[in-house]
Specification:
Protein name: 2Fe-2S iron-sulfur cluster-binding protein
Radius of gyration: 19 Å
Number of helices: 5
Distance between the termini: 60 Å
Strand order of the largest sheet: 2-1-5-3-4
Helix content: 25-40%
Order of helices and strands: EEHEEEHHHH
Largest sheet: 5 strands, mixed
Number of strands: 5
Organism: Streptomyces scopuliridis
């Protein structure tokens, strides 16, 4: 039997990895604690619990968020993607595969947050969002090249105590190239279909 709601708790419904979960939470419960302690989705890691390490990074409506600073009640009605929702069944997402192929992890503790952040980095870059190291931020300049410097800046909110940064940058670059190639192939197929 669920406890009766009080003025400091509510029953909320979270949309996580395409599934809806209803649970009672104290209003002060972070999204990180709701995921790990209430729903047993332990892929998202608790690192610093202060929003500084990025180990708890998830995607909220496709944008990066450190779940230790996000209240669970504020995430209601938003699409939440955790590391458990990144793969397509048994088939790894290209970002996950690049991390595996290029050894973009060591102990693996920060890897779920790194991968979620990398997914957003690739999307943000493809959309033309500048970073702090982008030379020309004018819209007419177009999408900047995704250099190692750009990747390092864009991933700087995710720390790796093992120091696997070189491999992480390489993995993000490879996954971004694959995403760009897939987008190009998709656009070419649409043009052929429209012409037929």
């Amino acid at each position: 039997m669920a406890p009766a709601p009080s003025s400091t708790s509510s029953a909320i419904t979270l949309n996580i990895n395409g599934e809806k979960y209803t649970l009672p939470v104290d209003h002060r419960t972070t999204l990180l604690d709701a995921l790990r302690e209430h729903l047993d989705l332990t892929g998202t890691k608790k690192g610093c619990d202060q929003g500084q390490c990025g180990a708890c990074t998830v995607l909220l409506d496709g944008r990066r968020a450190v779940s230790c600073l996000q209240l669970a009640v504020a995430a209601e009605g938003r699409a939440i993607t955790t590391i458990e929702g990144v793969a397509d069944g048994e088939r790894l997402h290209p970002v996950q595969q690049a991390f595996l192929d290029l050894d973009g992890y060591q102990c693996g503790y920060c890897t779920p947050g790194q991968i979620c952040s990398a997914l957003a980095v690739i999307e943000e870059h493809a959309a033309g969002w500048p970073s702090a190291v982008t030379d020309d931020v004018r819209p007419e300049a177009g999408v900047p090249a995704l250099t190692a410097e750009e990747i390092r800046e864009r991933m700087s909110g995710n720390l790796c105590r093992c120091g696997a940064y070189v491999s992480i940058v390489q993995a993000v670059a490879r996954a971004a190239e694959a995403a760009e190639a897939n987008a190009g192939a998709g656009a070419e197929a649409e043009v052929k279909e429209a012409a037929a």
